[in-house]
Write a structure and sequence with these properties.
- This protein has about 140 residues and is mainly alpha-helical.
- It folds into 2 domains: about 60 residues, no CATH class; about 70 residues, no CATH class.
- It is built from 3 helices and 4 strands, in the order E-E-E-E-H-H-H.
- Strand 1 and strand 2 form a beta hairpin.
- The longest helix is centred in the last third of the chain and has 21 residues.
- The two termini are about 20 Å apart.
Amino acid sequence: MNQSCTQCDAKNSDDAVFCDNCGTRLQRATVAVAPSTAAPNPHDGKPNTNQVNVTINTIAQPSKSTTVAGILAFFFGPLGMFYSTVSGALIMILINTLIILPIMIFTVGFGAILYFPSWLVGIVWAVMAVNKQNTISVK
């Protein structure tokens, strides 16, 4: 039995997690299996009428774009990081507000050079967070 992609209707193997054609995460269906009623129960000899339900659940999350994450972090700094990682965005906002901003005020603006490495770290962090989220596989 082959899986069909919900986006492009391409046929994929049963064990595929992503569509071979378009890359969309495949969703698994719920399967109900009923044993044959002709097989007798070995304990009492009566026909087996029990139904067995097997459910295979897969959480299909849409993947996020690493390019979009990088662009948002590039243009908006820590605010753009909310697309990829909320905790990372909050940490970078705290660092910029509690550490870099007071240094900038104390040095009359010369401490602004510290914002550049913080900005680069935010971009890399955003891209890495999205990449990690997209590569988490369902086991």
